[in-house]
Write a structure and sequence with these properties.
Elements: E1 9-12, H1 20-24, E2 30-36, H2 39-43, H3 45-55, E3 59-66, H4 72-84, E4 89-94, H5 96-108, E5 135-139, E6 151-156, E7 161-166, E8 174-177, H6 187-206, H7 212-234, H8 239-259, H9 263-275, H10 279-294, H11 299-309, H12 317-334, H13 351-357, H14 361-365, H15 372-382
Parallel strand pairs: 1-8, 2-3, 2-4, 4-5, 5-8
Antiparallel strand pairs: 6-7
Helix pairs in contact: 4-5, 6-7, 6-8, 6-10, 7-8, 7-11, 9-10, 9-13, 10-12, 11-12, 13-15
Length: 383
Amino acid sequence: MHKIIFNRQLVYGINSLESTGEIAHKYGKKALIVTGRSSTKKSGSLQKLQELLKKNNIEYIVFDKAIPNPTVEIIDECSKIGKDARCDFLIGIGGGSALDTAKATSGMITNQGSVGEYLEVGNNYKKIVNNPIPMIAIPTTAGTGSEATKNAVINDPKRKIKRSIRSEKLVPEVAILDPSLISTAPKNVIAPSAMDALTQLIEPFTGKKAQPIIDIIALDGIKKIGTNLLKFINNPSNLDAALELLIASYFSGIALANAGLGTVHALSRPFGGMFNLPHGLVCAILLPYITEYNWKYNVNKYAQIAIALDENQEGPKEKLAEKVPEIIFKLNNALEIPPDFKKFNLPKEDIDKIIEDAQGGSMKNNPKDFTKNELKSLLLRIF
């Protein structure tokens, strides 16, 4: 039996942000807006959102302290503000970290304790019991798919871990995809975010929990990235390409929420917790190396990926599948993403801990079963 989870409502297209005020009316009279410290202000998207709420007589409070790799402390602070102000609903606007901050906050406003108690560590963690306050998710980058997922990834600096708080109740009620919101994002934000989305499409498509409906969504998302990513990077005013990337990112959220992830994401999690490296960047660097191992274990689907990423590819399935790592390396190079982790001077003595922390569901869903020695050899190669 398969089960698929979606948002209650998806609104997408040029100027779709304009619908926010009308949509928000359904959820109450007072909103908590969760966003980052600068990007939505510089782009004008936060001001536009505030004007739309005012126009529709909706009060709001702005929490603008969302940061990359959101922490337990930030979520707890945001939740207290929303709870004390008796906000009816929440609007998350920003990149994946801002949306994860908003999602976790929506759950913690109605549930007791610190978000740290809900992080998936071992078997003794709290579960979301009460329904969160409703959330409207408005992404300003095309990458994480957080607007469609049931989890929020939180960093706990005290324990040096990065884990999810997870519940079907956390899926935002509404997702709004407006391509004009990503047209002002810098290349060094768009590029790794898009590669994160690509990873989140490839891993559910090729993993052991793959399912037919998600396969259709994931493969189409991969094709959208292959066709539109460089087109948008080279011309950020191309709103058609921007919308295709936003849809691909949204598809990646649906795919990972319903068919799981793989070894790239399993390894990327401890990188974030231990070294505070940007998640999308870690995924982009790891993806071609892991694919060098994986393609042999799902030749048919990796052959489809080769064609989806580069329609000029042709030949027998095995030859096509074998080309996927090279195609991804070339894409990373075009996006000016480093080929490895050497420039970050990461300590090799931490490799064993990374491998240990990476064990779990994502690792088990990978098409190839990696041994710890294989992972160590791989990480030594790219450290």
